[in-house]
Structure to design on (117 residues):
């Protein structure tokens, strides 16, 4: 009986944490690619965010993606070069009281993805 309660509590905790994360709607722009050779299509990364954690996944491997997160005043809260993949890439940012809180930009060789959360 006690094992069932503990298991139920753990499942509820994990599910509630997952449910609190919001999907970030990303838009994209092609970088100036005229005159370039063959282009590979970069799938849109999936970004989920809660108060202090940003989770990025991508259907294919993308190396050297520049990830920048700024707050609503333009202050850079996070900047890094990441390898995006189907496995989760977790980033941590400090919480601020206003919404929309952050602007995320993911820049690859050929595209720039951006959105607010």
């Amino acid at each position: 009986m006690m094992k069932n309660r503990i298991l139920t509590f753990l499942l509820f905790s994990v599910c509630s944490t997952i449910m609190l994360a919001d999907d970030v709607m990303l838009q994209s722009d092609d970088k100036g690619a005229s005159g370039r050779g063959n282009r590979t299509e970069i799938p849109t990364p999936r970004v989920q965010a809660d108060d202090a954690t940003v989770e990025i996944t991508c259907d294919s491997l993308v190396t050297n993606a520049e990830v920048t997160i700024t707050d609503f005043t333009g202050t850079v809260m996070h900047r890094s070069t990441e390898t995006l993949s189907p496995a989760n890439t977790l980033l941590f940012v400090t919480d601020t009281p206003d919404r929309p809180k952050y602007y995320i930009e993911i820049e690859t060789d050929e595209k720039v993805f951006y959105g607010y959360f």
About this structure: The radius of gyration is 17 Å. The CA atoms of residues 55 and 90 lie 5 Å apart. The mean pLDDT is 75.
